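User: Can you recover a sequence for this backbone? Please restate the input before giving your answer.

Assistant: Of course. Working from this structure:
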């Protein structure tokens, strides 16, 4: 029996014009951890609600490993987090996540991502998000995708606007002991169809459907 007989998600592939997204193998996960150690954003700001990057480089790297392992180990069809590594010409450039609770009933997903700093400002974040939105809407028949970014995170907000998201309210958080406003965003399946900017190909999804709570 192969790994995919027990864990079909290992065979899931999403491809865009420049990227391939898939579950990382051990070497790719190590490369992702090293990328995190090098830095994923300007240290002067904190774009994440959980400030996992405000630690020493070796702790950032370890937290990436532990987060991926935890999500794999805790996977349930009713509560899942799919964290894909993004590769450009075989080189790990970042990670794109998509998750849901009670997806079979709610048909709503959330997303999150980061890129190594050397890969910013090249439009890769848009391709990464477009890939998992295609998975959600075209592959899994989602009705909604939600995201969020702090008001000063213009790059993330720009990706969302480009892909058709609309405002869905605000939340108040504390980041680095200061008040911060998170802008919630929501994308419907109709809005997604109107803003499909990136060609995406999906492989290996049919075998994975039970993992997502679908028949």
């Amino acid at each position: 029996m192969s790994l995919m007989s027990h864990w079909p998600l290992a065979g899931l592939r999403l491809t865009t014009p420049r990227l391939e997204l898939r579950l990382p193998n051990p070497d790719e996960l190590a490369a992702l951890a090293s990328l995190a150690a090098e830095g994923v954003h300007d240290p002067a700001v904190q774009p994440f609600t959980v400030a996992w990057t405000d630690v020493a480089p070796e702790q950032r790297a370890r937290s990436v490993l532990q987060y991926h392992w935890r999500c794999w180990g805790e996977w349930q069809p009713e509560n899942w987090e799919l964290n894909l590594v993004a590769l450009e010409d075989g080189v790990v450039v970042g990670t794109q996540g998509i998750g849901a609770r009670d997806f079979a009933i709610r048909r709503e997903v959330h997303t999150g991502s980061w890129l190594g700093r050397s890969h910013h400002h090249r439009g890769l974040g848009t391709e990464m998000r477009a890939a998992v939105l295609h998975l959600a809407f075209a592959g899994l028949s989602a009705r909604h995708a939600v995201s969020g970014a702090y008001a000063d995170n213009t790059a993330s907000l720009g990706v969302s606007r480009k892909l058709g998201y609309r405002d869905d309210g605000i939340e108040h958080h504390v980041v680095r002991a200061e008040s911060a406003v998170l802008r919630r965003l929501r994308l419907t399946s109709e809005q997604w169809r109107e803003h499909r900017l990136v060609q995406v190909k999906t492989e290996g999804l049919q075998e994975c459907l039970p993992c997502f709570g679908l028949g």
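That completes the design. The chain has a mean pLDDT of 95.
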